[in-house]
Write a structure and sequence with these properties.
This protein is of the alpha+beta class. The chain is built from one helix and four strands.
């Protein structure tokens, strides 16, 4: 994925877990879409942290706030 972030992908029993840090929120959407479109994927667990590059504000995934 681009924009200088690091995303790790783990798959277990058809569940994809995305973890890591991104600097462009569009990277999250791209990762989710890519994972959801792989045959056999049952769910995607998004645990990616977004760091807003101008302010340095850390924004956690919506289910971790």
């Amino acid at each position: 994925m681009g924009s200088g972030g690091l995303v790790r992908v783990a798959v277990r029993d058809g569940v994809v877990e995305l973890t890591g840090t991104i600097f462009d929120e569009r990277t999250r959407a791209a990762g989710r879409v890519a994972a959801e479109n792989v045959a056999g994927v049952k769910a995607v667990n998004d645990q990616i942290v977004w760091v807003e590059p101008v302010s340095g504000t850390v924004i956690l995934p919506s289910d971790r706030k």
